[in-house]
TrEMBL record:
This is Putative TIM-barrel fold metal-dependent hydrolase. InterPro entries: Amidohydro-rel, Metal_Hydrolase, Metallo-dep_Lactonases. The lineage of its organism: Bacteria, Pseudomonadati, Pseudomonadota, Alphaproteobacteria, Hyphomicrobiales. Residues 8-300 form the Amidohydrolase-related domain. The keyword Transport does not apply. The keyword Hydrolase applies. One of its GO terms (molecular function) is hydrolase activity. It comes from Tepidamorphus gemmatus.
Length: 300
């Protein structure tokens, strides 16, 4: 793959902590975070910072995914990002936040959909902390009738759904995809394979296989960091190759998750790892993973 290969970064974040309220970044008390200590990213991060981090890579477009903005005003993040894009040329598209079971979900979706940059929404449904605690039908989950009633509105507004959930809830996602076949689902962060034990990875693979059977589901390969450990292709290459084998090269896309994944490794290390993991694929297949699929799924 040539060094000037065009890349669409399908998942990144900006925040201005002097102007806007992101509780997890602004509040004195940190949250429990899957990468552990995240104090290093509790500072403003804007397109100029992203361009420094991604220097040496031909980033042609980016997709901004909601960054845990104040949940009382989700559409305000979209309006702010429109101004950022107008001034800085990034992001190229937006995935806003919406809780499908909130009472004013139709108004929130209409607010997002009014932006020409918005392609979809992200929401993290109610989830169990461990596979053996997973139960179907919980309030706020993908099975909840009120949640599903809000989700059903995505088709009317022409919006896709970015799903971030532990892999043990992907069977519910498979049913959601089957029941709403016109809505594109994009699974975030490789289905969160945090448990790298043989048993954990076997469960992750089974869950991916179940949801990959639905043609309206795609996968973002990103978010592969682990607390206190560096990002290495030795650790993450097998995960990447398994994910692509399950979903196929036409339904996967690479993404930085920057600046969050700065906690796992430099931008260059992560993208070099992506490239090394798929070095045996032809250039056309690599182009799908790094560029073309994101263009298609996010309508860029």
């Amino acid at each position: 793959m040539p060094d000037d290969f065009p890349i669409v970064d399908a998942h990144q974040h900006f925040w201005d902590l002097e102007r806007n309220y992101h509780p997890w970044l602004c509040d004195p008390e940190p949250i429990a975070f899957r990468y552990g200590d995240y104090s290093a990213i509790r500072r403003t991060y804007m397109p100029s910072d992203y361009r420094v981090d991604s220097a040496g890579h031909r980033i042609v477009k980016t997709v901004h995914v909601e960054a845990e903005w104040d949940r009382s005003t989700p559409v305000a993040e979209t309006r702010w990002l429109e101004s950022v894009a107008a001034e800085h040329g990034l992001p190229s598209a937006i995935v806003g936040h919406a809780e499908p079971d909130r009472d004013d979900i139709e108004e929130v979706l209409a607010g997002h959909a009014a932006s020409p940059l918005v392609r979809g929404i992200r929401h993290k449904p109610a989830a169990a902390a461990r596979p053996d605690e997973a139960r179907r039908g919980a309030k706020g989950s993908m099975d909840d009738p009120k949640w599903r009633a809000g989700y059903a509105l995505l088709e009317r507004f022409g919006l896709s759904y970015d799903l971030q959930t532990p892999w043990w809830h992907l069977p519910a996602a498979a049913d959601l995809a089957a029941d709403f076949p016109a809505t594109q689902i994009i699974i975030n962060h490789t289905g969160l394979p945090a448990d790298r034990s043989p048993e954990g990875l076997a469960g992750w693979r089974r869950a991916l296989q179940e949801v990959a059977a639905r043609p309206n589901v795609a996968l973002k390969i990103s978010g592969l960091g682990r607390p206190g450990l560096p990002w290495t292709v030795e650790a993450n290459g097998p995960i990447i190759r398994d994910a692509i084998a399950i979903f196929g090269v036409d339904r996967c896309m690479f993404a930085s998750n920057y600046p969050v994944d700065r906690l796992a490794g430099p931008f260059a290390t992560i993208f070099a790892g992506f490239r090394a993991a798929v070095a045996d694929l032809g250039e056309a297949e690599q182009r799908l993973l790094f560029h073309d699929n994101a263009i298609r799924f996010y309508r860029l």
